[in-house]
């Protein structure tokens, strides 16, 4: 492991576009990312506590004191880091956050060692570079740079590095429930949400994540007295379950929009072809009669309605016996403005009395965060330092992040990773995860500009 102390020296290179490129800042962020990637914070390797201890050491070596920091969490393996950058007033603090646990990697399938950050053709390869140690490195580097400059914010800025976003999301709940200034925060910026579309040389939009769908998992179970397979009957646990699954497959939840998804669709009109514009306008106007969007555009379908899909099956006990039970796992992603209890009731209505419906991963409400003039100003002015004039487009995630635990507590959360998407497609959780060096540096510039305004 390299030295974790980074002495910050101000050295600026002025690029042709006039924006100051801070090479020391970039080098510091890259060092932090490199050293965090080396700590294999997967579930099988002990999760995130070692990364949190590393991050604490970084801040201690860059001007923070032990009174500003606490490594803490729900278990010994999932401890995160609470770090407070103290401001000059007692106003409500603002939270900036990232998660430092990662999903496993099949080492033999990668072109590099996933836990040794490697530069290839202008990209930094390694597990967590995009999801989400790149974001954590950006927060650590920005805190360190601001402290070196003796910057004092108007109010406290709290950094949360959480330890189990990829598994149970208990770390963020621990901070919410045990640190009063977290639960009372004015709002939060999450480096694990939001992104830039286009390319570094042709950016299109800043996708500000201001909503995400509610996660809910159920089981559908049927039972039967069974019997010998040589004497089959019409009543059969597998048949009953299959009938129920087909009913769920055939059902489409109604289209429903919120402030975020409406803004997303309005922006999509800009580059859509004529037939796509017609479809989007019919959704915006509430006149969409063709409900089979999923066949044509699954991604569009996922942002305009609640979706439920069967993901696992378990049935039968012997090849020569009638099944006594059958179970399916149903995963739902519910629109944040919808009532999850009504979704469960609808599922029970669809599958009928022969099927037992049980919640195995209960929901936590996550209301959309309002796009206020203050948030628009903060994000726009910060990204304009890097990409002048780039439009900011509210976006809803179909997946889930740690933000849900704060939104459910009434704290608005905005996904602001400011990381450009990979030109070859989304690689997080997959093979050869990477981040473009220029994109990583740009995200550091964004965080620095943003935090100076907080």
Mean pLDDT: 93
Q: Give the CATH superfamily of the largest domain.
A: Zn peptidases
What is the SS-derived class?
Answer: alpha+beta
- CATH topology name of the largest domain, in short, is Aminopeptidase
Helical amount among residues, as a percent range?
A: 25-40%
Q: What is the name of the CATH architecture of the largest domain?
A: 3-Layer(aba) Sandwich
Beta fraction of the residues? 15-25%
Major sheet: size, sense and barrel closure? 6 strands, mixed
Question: What gyration radius follows from the Cα positions, in whole Å?
Answer: 24 Å
Throw out a few tags for this protein.
alpha+beta; Aminopeptidase; Alpha-Beta Plaits; four-stranded antiparallel beta sheet; 14 helices; 20 strands
């Amino acid at each position: 492991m390299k030295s974790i102390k980074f002495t910050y020296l101000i050295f600026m290179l002025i690029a042709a576009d006039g924006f100051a490129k801070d090479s020391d800042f970039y080098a510091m962020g890259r060092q932090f990312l490199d050293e965090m990637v080396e700590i294999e914070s997967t579930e099988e390797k002990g999760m995130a506590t070692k990364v949190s201890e590393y991050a604490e050491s970084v801040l201690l070596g860059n001007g923070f004191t032990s009174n500003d920091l606490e490594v803490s969490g729900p278990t010994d393996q999932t401890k995160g880091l609470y770090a407070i950058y103290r401001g000059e007033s007692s106003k409500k603090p603002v939270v900036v956050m990232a998660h430092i646990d990662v999903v496993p990697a099949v080492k033999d399938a990668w072109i590099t060692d996933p836990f040794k950050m490697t530069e290839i053709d202008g990209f930094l390869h390694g597990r967590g570079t995009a999801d989400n140690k790149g974001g954590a490195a950006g927060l650590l580097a920005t805190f360190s740079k601001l402290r070196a400059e003796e910057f004092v914010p108007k109010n406290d800025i709290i950094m949360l590095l959480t330890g189990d976003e990829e598994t149970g999301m208990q770390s963020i709940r621990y901070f919410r429930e045990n640190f009063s200034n977290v639960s009372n925060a004015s709002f939060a910026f999450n480096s694990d949400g939001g992104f830039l579309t286009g390319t570094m040389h042709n950016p299109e939009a800043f996708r500000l994540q201001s909503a995400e769908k509610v996660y809910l998992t159920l089981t559908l179970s049927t039972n039967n007295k069974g019997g010998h397979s040589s004497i089959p009957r019409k009543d059969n646990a597998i048949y009953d379950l299959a009938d129920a699954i087909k009913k769920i497959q055939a059902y489409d939840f109604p289209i429903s929009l919120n402030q975020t998804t409406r803004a997303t669709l309005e922006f999509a009109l800009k580059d859509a072809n004529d037939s796509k514009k017609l479809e989007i306008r019919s959704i915006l106007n509430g006149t969409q009669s063709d409900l089979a969007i999923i066949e044509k555009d699954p991604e569009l379908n996922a942002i305009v309605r609640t979706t439920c899909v069967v993901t696992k099956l378990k049935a039968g006990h012997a090849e020569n016996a009638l099944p006594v039970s059958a179970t399916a796992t149903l995963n739902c992603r519910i629109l944040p403005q919808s009532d999850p209890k009504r979704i469960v009731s609808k599922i029970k209505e669809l599958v009928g009395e022969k099927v037992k419906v049980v919640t195995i991963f209960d929901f936590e409400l996550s209301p959309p965060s309002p796009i206020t003039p203050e948030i628009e100003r903060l994000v726009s002015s910060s990204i304009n330092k890097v990409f002048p004039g780039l439009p900011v487009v509210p976006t809803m995630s179909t997946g889930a992040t740690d933000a849900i635990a704060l939104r459910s507590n009434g704290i608005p959360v905005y996904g602001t990773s400011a990381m450009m998407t990979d030109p070859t497609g989304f690689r997080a959780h997959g093979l050869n995860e990477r981040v473009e060096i220029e994109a990583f540096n740009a995200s550091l510039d964004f965080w620095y500009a943003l935090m100076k305004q907080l």
